[in-house]
Amino acid sequence: MKKVVLGFSGGVDSSVCAMLLKNAGFDVLGLYIDNADEKARFDAVSTAEFIGIPLEILDANNELEDLVCKPFAEAYLRGETPNPCIICNPTLKFKALLELADKVCAEHIATGHYARADGGALYKGLPANDQSYMLCRIRREQLNRLILPLGGYDKQQVRQLAEEFKLPVAKKPDSMEICFIPDKDYIGWLGRRSTLPPAGDLVFHGETIGRHEGIHRLTVGQRIPGLFNGRKLYVSAIDPDTNAIELALWEELFKTEVLARGFNWLCDVPSEPVRASVRVRHTKWENPDCTAYIEGDIVRIICDDPVRAPAKGQSAVLYDGDRVLGGGFIT
């Protein structure tokens, strides 16, 4: 019987994964990455007992702080828009899964992401719940051993499976918040860690038209309340050096060129410009065709059709059809 180490939170997705893997003949060992949430830990332990799989609990508070929380906070205070899950997946979550798999001689690792892994390649899941974007920085040695049981399902189907399996978490709400900011109070969380940026200028077409309460409170693409000369305005850039936020009209948010640093390739690194499509945020606003040029440490992406408000710190992810080619941080 093949052994697999499953990232197990005790939620609907990971619980259905455990059942699907068991039914497919795998010997499943769950790994719960503990971030000091007692209720979440209790749910994971009790659900694992119900399903009948052993569960390892990893105290990851120090690693979470060093690898995810600290970089996330620093990026926010620089006026960037980081995605903590994209940072966490390769450096903490999948690293821990692979280390435990090696320890117990398990051939595979698994998670409840809505994407597909096949033959060392990563592909989109079904459109309604696709999470391939969130996995763009997974390392190839992690991807080579990864099973994604939910890749062919959407969320509604997974809920139905949970009911059929009579799982006690079948009706448990989805977790929408960042795990280390469960109350969604980003400002309070940042304020407890460091001195927050002061108020500064709102600038539109070179003219100061108002004040903001701190660059950490806004992100590129966000609408500013009220109207200016009868028009809605949006954040187009954040300058941490001058503490100014630049505003633009809706049509001015769209860009055809995106630069990405630290690109993580999930295929052989192209030796020439590559035709692909690109996604610049997890939401499915647009996914235009593009040409990507490798220029030293930077990948320059020229879009056939403009993308809305690419934000520094978010990820630009390239696709060849459904296959993920890789992703880097927008700069």
Structure, explained:
- The protein has 331 residues and is an alpha/beta fold.
- The chain contains seven helices and 18 strands.
- It has helices at residues 12-23, 38-51, 61-77, 84-103, 140-143, 155-164, 186-191, and strands at 3-7, 27-34, 55-59, 108-110, 115-118, 121-124, 146-147, 200-204, 207-212, 223-228, 231-239, 244-248, 254-265, 274-279, 289-295, 298-308, 315-320, 323-330.
- The strands form four sheets. It has a six-stranded antiparallel beta barrel with strand order 13-16-15-14-17-18.
- Helix 3 runs antiparallel to helix 4.
- It starts with a strand and ends with a strand.
- The model has no long low-confidence stretch (mean pLDDT 93).
**Number of β-strand runs:** 18
Element order: H for helix, E for strand = EHEHEHHEEEHEHHEEEEEEEEEEE
Task: Provide the helix percentage.
Answer: 25-40%
| Structural classification | alpha/beta
